[in-house]
Amino acid sequence: MKKDDCFYLGKIVKKYSFKGELLAKLDTDQPNLYENLDAIFVELRNNLVPFFIEKSQLHKSNLLRIKFEDVNSEEDADALMKSELYLPLEFLPKLEGNKFYFHEVIGFNITDKKHGDIGIIKAINDSTAQALFEIDKNGVEILIPMNDEFIIEVDRNSKTILVETPEGLIDLYL
Fold first, then answer.
1. d(CA 38, CA 70)
2. What is the Cα gyration radius of the chain?
3. Which CATH number is associated with domain 102-172?
């Protein structure tokens, strides 16, 4: 399984018991969706390795207490500390309306109500305080904040996102 075919679920943050149990901090708004998994991919030395889960349960909101098969001691658990957890993309719940996953809209066309066709989304920059659409318009990079107030419609069939940007934002780039 390649990382491109998966999504980041969380990270193992601490040991829970002397019997190899671990606590993982989940990066999700709906941790209960991932409470009864059979298996998960653990990133070890830049490879995704499948681990089967004996049992798991939510522990204090967004922590998942996990007991993996064949991880039976503190030493076994130590080897997995700080490892990232991944699941195949098909495990993501389907989103509707104007909600979307970042990976889902790469390649979508952005259209502004006033300016018309803006360009193609080439990436999402989520390293800033507010996530940004990185758009390519004939070699010019345009950045539009991913603000719910700006996004009018996400059309998955035509792969377009209709936005209404504040006055002057698009003009900064053109």
1. 14
2. 20
3. 2.30.30.240
For the chain, give every domain's residue range: 3-91, 102-172
Residue-wise pLDDT for 74-106, tens only, equals: 999 999 999 999 999 988 888 888 888 888 899
Contact 113, 152 (CB under 8 A): yes
The answer, as to whether pTM is greater than 0.85, is no
Cα–Cα dist 36/25, whole Å: 15
Lookup: tokens for 94 = 């389907």
The hierarchical CATH code for the domain 3-91 is 2.40.30.60
DSSP string covering the chain = --GGGEEEEEEEEEE-STTS-EEEEE--S-GGGGTT-SEEEEEETTEEEEEEEEEEEEETTTEEEEEETT--SHHHHHTTTT-EEEEEGGGSPP--TT---GGGGTT-EEEETTTEEEEEEEEEE-SSSS-EEEEEETTEEEEEE--TTTEEEEETTTTEEEE-PPTTTGGGT-
Q: For residue 17, what are the contacts with CB-CB under 8 A and spacing of at least 6?
A: none
